[in-house]
Design brief:
The chain has 364 residues and is of the alpha/beta class. The protein has nine helices and ten strands. The model is unreliable at 4-44 and 124-159 (pLDDT under 50). This is tRNA-uridine aminocarboxypropyltransferase.
């Protein structure tokens, strides 16, 4: 994720085509005819060995640079990773995934045709309107006590009734249809057209969502190279009580602002992608608007600056955002700063690889 914060230092814009993000993943190739074929009598070279933990080439593996087991962070981290970011050489979410114990990651794709979201409350048996901001969900905390580094969405939704929200969207987050469950019908004021703003205006809905919910995304995709579309499940994410989105929207608060509103961050949701991709993920996942938004107000430069193009000074990588946010919140396990050292070494690896490749280019 790239998080904006104030800085007086200017970074020169750098364009580096060697490390640009690929236009599509291999798994998304529409036609088999586009697959590269080996010439007769030749063999395709095998892929470089890859570390199964960090997904880096074995020669650039970062796992040996990270404390094992990972650091015990008290604030859980939920990473929503853009599908085109996961294989990028400089993606730093892998450091958080290996270096911190309480991290969950879900892959998010851009909406190409149509997507549907279904939201279920954690506790399907509770009375509507009984939830309060900051109230603990017994289902969630029981799961967290059983296994601190992950929680099971199927456990908290088992036996749940109808979803409280069903929403269909098109590209760039354009809402094409939205409906609410019967449990909220008497409490959400709407006549002709329902919207997320009207749901947010209902204290009953807001209080219920504050007790925790699970959001499932279904996305329509082409079947092979045909025009036929099929609906597939893309992710199911548990959003426990105390969840906060790290995103600098106009209504975002700093840590002091969250404390003033008596909001204790227990689960930090982070968008992992370039700034443009993070903004599109935010627009195409309107359920994120149900969460308090956290912004960082720091005067630091990103370690990305020399090897990856950034819109302007003050935009951070995902691992930098997570480390600084945990520090601001007060979750500071011993060795947390060492993850920034790992990131710096990864950037150094990429800089070295770039120089080696440039040195092999024929001179003009």
């Amino acid at each position: 994720m790239l998080v904006c914060f104030r800085s007086r230092i200017q970074i020169p814009t750098r364009t580096n085509s060697l490390y640009s993000i690929p236009k599509s993943l291999p798994s998304e190739t529409p036609n088999a005819s586009k697959t590269l074929m080996a010439a007769p009598g030749t063999q395709l070279k095998s892929k470089r060995p890859t570390c199964p933990s960090c997904s880096k080439p074995a020669s650039l593996c970062i796992c040996i640079r990270i404390q094992n087991p990972g650091l015990q962070n008290k604030v859980n981290i939920t990473i929503l990773q853009h599908s085109l970011e996961r294989k990028h050489a400089l993606n730093s979410a892998r450091i958080a995934r290996v270096g911190l114990q309480n991290v969950t990651l879900s892959t998010v794709s851009d909406v190409k045709f149509d997507a549907k979201f279904m939201i279920h409350l954690f506790d399907p048996g509770h009375d509507s309107g009984s939830g309060q901001n900051g109230e603990k969900s017994s289902d969630f905390y029981q799961v967290m006590d059983d296994k601190a580094d992950e929680f099971d969405a199927s456990h908290v939704t088992k036996g749940s009734k109808e979803p409280v929200i069903t929403c269909s969207i098109g590209k760039y987050g354009i809402v094409t249809d939205i409906s609410i469950g019967n449990v909220w019908m008497p409490h959400v004021q709407w006549k002709r057209r329902l919207s997320f703003d009207k749901i947010l205006a209902s204290k009953v809905a807001v209080d219920d969502l504050a007790t925790g919910f699970v959001v499932k995304k279904l996305q329509k995709r082409r079947v092979g190279g045909s025009e036929e579309l099929e609906e597939v499940e893309e992710f199911e994410v548990a959003v426990p009580p105390g969840s906060v989105l790290l995103f600098p929207s106009k209504n975002a608060l700093d840590v002091d602002g969250l404390k003033a509103m008596d909001i204790e961050a227990k689960n930090l949701i982070v968008l992992d992608g370039t700034w443009s991709k993070a903004r599109r993920m935010y627009c195409e996942n309107p359920w994120l608007r149900f969460l308090p938004h956290l912004k960082l107000d720091l005067d630091r430069l990103s370690l990305y600056s020399e090897v990856r193009q950034q819109p302007k000074a003050g935009y951070l990588s995902t691992i930098e955002s997570i480390v600084y946010a945990l520090e601001e919140i007060g979750d500071y396990p011993e060795g947390l700063d060492s993850l920034l050292g790992v990131f710096e070494s990864m950037v150094g690896d990429q800089r070295r690889c770039k120089n080696e490749r440039l040195s092999k280019l024929p001179s003009a």
